[in-house]
């Protein structure tokens, strides 16, 4: 929902193309996201957007909450379609946020009720995007906080480590877990998927807005959005 902005001051005036900037209780300047669009649903590299905006990919098992995370970040209730039926996302969905970056909803893995050929096709599509996309700045790996990471979750993080992609692990649906068990959730995830020193782990709930600002902060660091604002002289 919020980008963390540096204050741009020239002759004592804040220069910005956004109309709602405010200073929070921590003294950090923030802006609300106003403009979002689904740019394209792609299956091949030639269909990817070509504006050159930095991108953040979101990966995870089917029905882990990728669409809910996107909706929470952009402050929309149902812009990214959510479904109780796993396997609904079958394309790479590029969400244009303020014409500054793309959030890319990657098809969920681990959905058994599709053919082997279909799963292999999705796998090739996901691997091609994650390994060849030059504008990809980091990957958010979502894991259901209610359950231990699966073997597929472990394999995905190992894959991302192999290709040296920056990783943010987000434990979704944390509001469904007793607060007294949150520390255990963190420890279990770190142990199971072998989070490395440079990785980050955030507990998240779309309904309770837990972890929202922390996720945006990580995205801002990876995409250098504020530097882009300054460079453009906005």
Automatic annotation (TrEMBL):
Q: Where is the EngB-type G domain?
A: 52-225
Listed cofactors: Mg(2+)
Q: Which biological process annotations from GO are given for this protein?
A: division septum assembly
User: What are this entry's molecular-function GO terms?
Assistant: GTP binding; metal ion binding
- Gene Ontology cellular component list: cytosol
Q: What SUPFAM superfamilies is this protein classified in?
A: P-loop containing nucleoside triphosphate hydrolases
Identify one Pfam family in the record: MMR_HSR1
Which keywords, in A-to-Z order, does the entry hold?
Cell cycle, Cell division, GTP-binding, Magnesium, Metal-binding, Nucleotide-binding, Septation
Give the top-rank taxon of the lineage listed in the UniProt record for this protein: Bacteria
Indicate the transmembrane segments per the record. Answer: none
PANTHER family to which the protein is assigned, alphabetical: ENGB-TYPE G DOMAIN-CONTAINING PROTEIN (PTHR11649:SF13), MSS1/TRME-RELATED GTP-BINDING PROTEIN (PTHR11649)
NCBIfam families on file:
GTPase_YsxC, small_GTP
Q: What does this protein do?
A: Necessary for normal cell division and for the maintenance of normal septation.
Instruction: State the similarity comment.
Output: Belongs to the TRAFAC class TrmE-Era-EngA-EngB-Septin-like GTPase superfamily. EngB GTPase family.
Q: What is this protein called?
A: Probable GTP-binding protein EngB
What is the scientific name of the source organism?
Liquorilactobacillus cacaonum DSM 21116
């Amino acid at each position: 929902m919020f980008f963390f902005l540096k204050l741009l001051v020239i002759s004592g005036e804040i220069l910005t193309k956004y109309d709602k900037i405010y200073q929070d209780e921590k003294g950090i300047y923030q802006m609300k996201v106003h403009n979002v669009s689904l740019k394209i649903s792609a299956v091949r590299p030639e269909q990817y957007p070509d504006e050159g905006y930095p991108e953040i990919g979101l990966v995870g098992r089917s029905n882990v909450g990728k669409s809910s995370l996107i909706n929470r970040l952009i402050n929309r209730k149902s812009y990214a379609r959510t479904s109780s039926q796993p396997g609904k996302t079958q394309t790479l969905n590029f969400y244009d946020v303020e014409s500054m970056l793309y959030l890319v909803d990657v098809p969920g893995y681990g959905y058994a009720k599709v053919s082997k050929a279909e799963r292999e096709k999705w796998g090739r599509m996901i691997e091609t995007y994650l390994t060849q996309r030059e504008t990809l700045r980091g990957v958010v790996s979502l894991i259901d906080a209610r359950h231990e990471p699966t073997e597929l979750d472990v394999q995905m993080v190992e894959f991302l480590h192999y290709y040296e992609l920056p990783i943010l692990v987000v434990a979704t649906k944390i509001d469904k877990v007793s607060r007294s068990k949150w520390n255990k959730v963190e420890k279990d995830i770190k142990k199971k998927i072998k989070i490395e020193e440079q990785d980050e782990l955030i507990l998240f709930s779309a309904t309770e807005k837990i972890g929202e600002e922390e996720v945006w902060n990580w995205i801002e660091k990876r995409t250098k959005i504020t530097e882009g604002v300054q460079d453009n002289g906005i």
